[in-house]
Amino acid sequence: MQLNASAPRLAIPQFKGSGSQRMRAACDMPMPPVSRCLQEFDHLSRLTDSTVSARLEAALDKLETAYLEPQQCLVAYDAVLRRFRRLRHSQETPFGRFVRARIEIRRDKLAVQAT
Q: What is the residue extent of each domain of the chain?
């Protein structure tokens, strides 16, 4: 598999120093937007009240506003979708199907806007 050099990538922080210094630096930095979004999905998957839909949309809004360019946001949506599928939430659950559908709808709208 070849990587496309022009494809946008998400920045991964690099830390210098000893192992304990790197660990402290990683603990002090804020959680990346994709991880925050997945953490919110994990929390929402356990809820059974009527606020789940609105809270899912809010998590996706936060993810979208974390990136300035539409291409970066599209990459983030793909990353969330890939990692969500790998987690314990499968597509066979109603919540998993709902999350996948919402991300795909937003991704399609953003792709149309970006062109």
A: 31-114
